[in-house]
Amino acid sequence: MRKAIDRLNECLRQARRKPVLFMLSGGSALELLAGVEMKYVGKRTTIAALDERFSRDPAVNNFSQVAETDFYKKAERKGIDYIDTRIHRKISLYGLAQKLERGLRRWKKKYPKGKIIITQGIGEDGHTAGIMPYAENPKKFTQFFEKDSRWVVGYNATKEKSEYPKRITVTLPFLRNQVDCAVVYATGSNKRRALRSLLAKRGDLAKTPARVIHQMKNVAVFTDIT
Predict the structure, then answer these.
(1) C-alpha separations of 143 from 22, 114, 140, 150, 222 in Å
(2) Average pLDDT over residues 65-93
(3) What pTM was estimated for this model as a whole?
(4) What is the distance between the alpha carbons of residues 78 and 22, in angstroms, rounded to a whole number?
(5) Does residue 226 carry a pLDDT above 90?
């Protein structure tokens, strides 16, 4: 964890003179926020979730969990901006996906030379962000996650794939083309098989979506799995 935090702070330090879009994963990756050096966070920082669970429950919704961290509360006092994916009103799954897409594109248009820094997790099944594996249906995987025109997609993964099937997530083209620095954090022996598939010389994205890291810029993977 200490090494992952150091890397995250280095990403933020290198971007400190530029506007930063800081996109955060839920789960164990939230633990990294406790070590972020606040001197690298300020009015030109925008915070968003990398993916979202479509739920009003604050214990489930990723942005709600981010907003409860000490990091976020300190950042808010420093005047950061944010793209809110909590469900405050009647909005559909696809409406929330469009809201996040608009927010990301507005930020990029306003700050074309800004930097996008993310924390990224890996699931036991090899998913990353909200991009679930579809080894049984690669065509569906491509339709959901590979459209160059989309930065965000909303979809129902079904309960066979996730306890929280209604998901909003950035797409593979966004991860490949827009992210400037990624800190990937995977802990727990239950992820050993996924990590092995992630780091293999060859593999299929539809089976192990986290393999997209091989196609991304400036990625570092930190794990306690041996």
Answers:
(1) 27, 29, 5, 11, 30
(2) 95
(3) 0.95
(4) 15
(5) no
Report whether 154 contacts 161 (CB < 8 A).
no
The DSSP secondary-structure symbol of 86 reads: S
First to last CA, the chain: 15
| Calpha distance 119→131 (Å, rounded) | 15
The domains found in the chain, sorted by start residue, are: 2-171+184-223 (3.40.50.1360)
Note the pLDDT tens digit of each residue in 130-141: 999 999 999 999
With CA atoms as reference, report the closest residue to 52 among 220, 153, 158, 169. 169
Residue 167: in which H helix or E strand, if any? strand 166-170
pLDDT digits (tens, 9 = 90+) for 49-73: 999 999 999 999 999 999 999 999 9
Please give the helix or strand (H or E) that residue 11 lies within, else none.
helix 2-14
CB atoms within 10 A of CB 197: 18
Q: What is the mean pLDDT of the chain?
A: 95
For 185-224, give the secondary structure using H, E and C.
EECCHHHHHHHHHHHCCCCCCCCCHHHHHHHCCCEEEEEC
